[in-house]
Automatic annotation (TrEMBL):
<feature type="domain" description="DUF6314">
    <location>
        <begin position="515"/>
        <end position="716"/>
    </location>
</feature>
<dbReference type="GO" id="GO:0050661">
    <property type="term" value="F:NADP binding"/>
</dbReference>
<protein>
    <recommendedName>
        <fullName>DUF6314 domain-containing protein</fullName>
    </recommendedName>
</protein>
<dbReference type="InterPro" id="IPR036188">
    <property type="entry name" value="FAD/NAD-bd_sf"/>
</dbReference>
<dbReference type="InterPro" id="IPR045632">
    <property type="entry name" value="DUF6314"/>
</dbReference>
<dbReference type="Pfam" id="PF19834">
    <property type="entry name" value="DUF6314"/>
</dbReference>
<comment type="similarity">
    <text>Belongs to the FMO family.</text>
</comment>
<dbReference type="InterPro" id="IPR020946">
    <property type="entry name" value="Flavin_mOase-like"/>
</dbReference>
<dbReference type="Pfam" id="PF00743">
    <property type="entry name" value="FMO-like"/>
</dbReference>
<keyword id="KW-0560">Oxidoreductase</keyword>
<dbReference type="GO" id="GO:0050660">
    <property type="term" value="F:flavin adenine dinucleotide binding"/>
</dbReference>
<keyword id="KW-0521">NADP</keyword>
<keyword id="KW-0274">FAD</keyword>
<dbReference type="InterPro" id="IPR050346">
    <property type="entry name" value="FMO-like"/>
</dbReference>
<dbReference type="InterPro" id="IPR000960">
    <property type="entry name" value="Flavin_mOase"/>
</dbReference>
<dbReference type="GO" id="GO:0004499">
    <property type="term" value="F:N,N-dimethylaniline monooxygenase activity"/>
</dbReference>
<keyword id="KW-0285">Flavoprotein</keyword>
Length: 717
């Protein structure tokens, strides 16, 4: 590396979130530049930092860690587990490690709020005014360049709602939602059609008595793991990948790609058809030519189908003066509301820019889609020697990193600054996007195109990874600053995920998610010992989602792996309850009931079955205290070649669906050998490949006084 020049040009960076940290790292990569970060809070990371007022530590990302990875900074080994979707607290830890590696303490001004910025036309420098609790009054410094990285989702937006403030109903903006526990046994109204609205409504199903979701337009809801196209869907045996890994492939982007994402009927129809093959049709149907809106949740769709979430395609009009009743624009009313969560979005604020510059970039505070106009989301001809990084709706790490690299190269003089004419043309393109009706969900949603755009602007060459599979996934590591062992580890982590997905990992997550709700159950019990009871059971089985139990360390039988606290593990849990009529082979019949507990452990991608304490299972349907471990459910790729293939032959062929076996369980002197078969949808319209359509549970039981086979088949009610 050449020696730095004696006089470096200075760069001010407003914000120490993802955009600010990346901007700093790529500015200082140029010997002629020096950077200073101004951050109003006490730590780096923006909304991912525990110090941020809107930080939700247990909020899970909508994209996998691969989309939340910088080009040459892999996630720590201890976080490279099978649970691919990190929580906000984990992203905050990742950003802190990045700061520790790259940012000099002397270049980071924490607890420092920029209150004004002006460009001096004579000096050709930016003058920043800022405050800090450790100093008295306002301070001023000058810089050669300015990067605005203060975040797009700046301020929670709450629309004016008559009587809301005067009501006795508890209400918050979704930005202040922490978890569902505080809404235990309450009736909650969630307002808005945003990603947060659907995610929060889904989280509430574990705790709330009832959830009403009020939204202005229909939308598709995707789980975090989705099947790849053509992956054995015809036999109900799809392989699952992280949702963003499927969508962010160069080889498959045509199904959802669009340059500037302007809404057209043909484009909408192509997308809606593609989505229909993967997930259930929304509760309020979408016409083929309608603009598609997409949300993500592992529990929302099934909770709507099972009646736990009550959807309302309507507008939230007001709250009754005496409280407790929500009035909708259609005239409908929702009564007995205990709490309201307003997932109504955010506004972008730029309080440090003077009115003249806000006017120049045509800033509109109430526009939550395109609040200001720029060239390529970064530059504006009225902002000399300055640029935006990460200031658009729906920013991803790779796009932000490549924006920062382009801007840093412009500052360093390594790339020519676009002419005013070119920038004005870019601003007009953005104006077209702003004025396009109807509005699209994300004005710049073509992630692949954006990554390639900034790589092209920076004259970066695409670098193939060690494997074709990892190379096909679009990440910033496709364009490393310098190829290093860290870049190799980023790509190796992606390849491990692809290999695990193709071996059947993540199928368990899809199975567990799909079980939620009620099923018809038909069971045949065949005894092969003298005097044994044979017969049939017909009834209903329900998988009731509930908060995970504290595992019983003192139980008589535990699983053969360490127990982890539910809070740390983020485990999910169903109480399984069945009731129906058992008819013996001799003609007598009686009512039969049973309960189990099923748990899913994300870090190991494991489903386990547990017994319920008999004394605790009486009374309410959702009553049942965990007792001791029964078995784990292990999915196998070659079910037709195992003994599992001999089961459920009245319902499926040996190759159909995913086979699974349960670990053998010795109950006193009786040995239980469980088997399972899970058949997913075909991917045809109305039969989504993300959902289990039907499944079977069988037991072969052997002991001194027992010898029978139990085979149950379940179909959705």
């Amino acid at each position: 590396m050449p020696s730095p020049p004696q006089t470096q040009r200075s760069v001010a960076i407003i914000g120490a979130g993802v955009s600010g940290l990346l901007s700093y790292r790529h500015v200082i990569a140029h010997p002629g530049l020096h950077a200073t970060i101004f951050e109003s809070s006490s730590s780096v990371g923006g909304i991912w930092s525990p110090a941020h007022p809107l930080h939700r530590r247990d909020m899970q990302t909508n994209v996998s860690r691969h989309t939340c990875t910088f080009s040459d900074f892999p996630w720590p080994k201890e976080l490279q587990g099978k649970d691919l979707y990190p929580y906000a607290g984990q992203v905050g830890e990742y950003l802190k490690l990045y700061r520790d590696k790259w940012v000099k303490e002397s270049d980071l001004r924490l607890n420092t709020r920029v209150i004004a910025s002006n460009f001096d036309e004579v000096k050709k420098r930016w003058k920043l005014a800022f405050t800090n609790p450790s100093a008295t009054g306002e301070m001023v410094e000058e810089f050669d360049y300015l990067i605005i990285a203060s975040g797009f989702f700046s301020t929670p937006y709450t629309p004016p709602i008559p009587n809301l403030d005067a009501s006795n109903i508890e209400s918050i903006h979704s930005a202040h939602f922490t978890d569902g526990k505080r809404y235990q046994d309450k009736t909650v109204a969630v307002v808005g059609g945003s990603l947060s609205a659907v995610e929060i409504a889904g989280q509430l199903t574990t705790y709330a008595k009832r959830t009403h979701h009020i939204y202005p337009r229909p939308f598709w809801t995707f789980p975090r793991y989705i099947p790849t196209s053509g992956s054995a869907q015809s036999i109900g045996k799809p392989y699952f990948h992280p949702m963003d890994i499927v969508f962010n492939r160069r080889s498959s982007r045509q199904a959802v790609a669009s340059d500037t994402d302007l809404s057209t009927a043909s484009k909408n129809e192509r997308r809606n058809t593609f989505f229909l093959s993967m997930v259930p049709l929304p509760h309020h149907p979408i016409e083929p030519s309608d603009r598609p809106f997409v949300t993500f949740s592992d529990s929302y769709s099934i909770s709507v189908r099972t009646g736990i979430i009550h959807p309302h395609l309507d507008l939230f009009a007001s709250v009754s003066p005496d409280g407790g009743v929500v009035n909708l624009s259609s005239g409908a009313e929702i009564s007995d509301i205990d709490a309201i969560i307003l997932a109504t979005g955010y506004t972008t604020t730029l309080p440090f820019l003077p009115p003249s510059l806000l006017e120049a970039i045509e800033y509109k505070e109430d526009d939550r889609f395109v609040p200001f106009l720029t060239h390529n989301l970064v530059l504006h001809p009225s902002l000399p020697q300055a640029g935006f990084v990460g200031q658009y709706r729906g920013p991803y790490f790779a796009v932000i990193e490549l924006q920062a690299r382009w801007l840093a190269s412009l500052f360093a003089g390594e790339l020519p600054w676009p002419s005013a004419e070119v920038q004005h043309a870019g601003v007009e393109t953005e104006r077209t996007i702003r004025e396009n009706e109807p509005k699209v969900q994300f004005p710049h949603s073509d992630y692949v195109a954006l990554v390639d755009l900034y790589a092209s602007l920076s004259n970066l060459s695409f670098e193939s990874g060690a494997t074709a599979g990892a190379t096909d996934i679009v990440t910033a590591s496709n364009y490393p600053v310098v190829h290093s062992s860290e870049t190799d580890e980023v790509e190796a982590d992606i390849q491990r995920t692809l290999d695990e997905a193709e071996s059947g990992t993540y199928v368990s997550a899809a199975i567990f998610r799909s079980l939620h709700g009620s099923w018809r159950c038909e069971r045949i019990i065949t005894s092969d010992i003298p005097g044994g009871m044979s017969g049939t059971f017909s009834g209903t089985a329900t998988f009731h989602l509930r908060p995970p139990s504290v595992l019983p360390e003192g139980a008589s039988k535990l699983p053969p792996y360490p127990l982890v606290s539910p809070e740390k593990e983020k485990a999910r849990e169903y109480l399984y309850s069945e009731t129906g009529t058992f008819r013996t082979s001799t003609g007598s019949e009686f009512t039969a009931q049973r309960k189990y507990i099923y748990r899913y452990q994300p870090s190991s991608d494991t489903i386990s079955a547990w017994f319920v304490k008999t004394s605790s299972s009486l009374g309410k349907q959702d009553a049942g205290e965990i007792d001791y471990w029964f078995h784990d459910i292990v999915v196998t790729q070659n079910g037709s070649q195992s003994t599992v293939g001999q089961w459920f032959q009245d319902h499926v062929t040996p190759d159909e669906g995913w086979a699974a076996s349960g670990s053998e369980h010795l109950c006193i002197k009786d040995l239980y050998c469980p088997v399972y078969r899970f058949v997913f949808g075909s991917g045809l319209p109305g039969d989504p490949s993300t959902e289990v359509r039907e499944f079977g549970i069988g037991y072969d039981v052997r002991g001194p006084q027992k010898g029978y086979v139990s085979e149950a088949w379940y179909s959705r009610c």
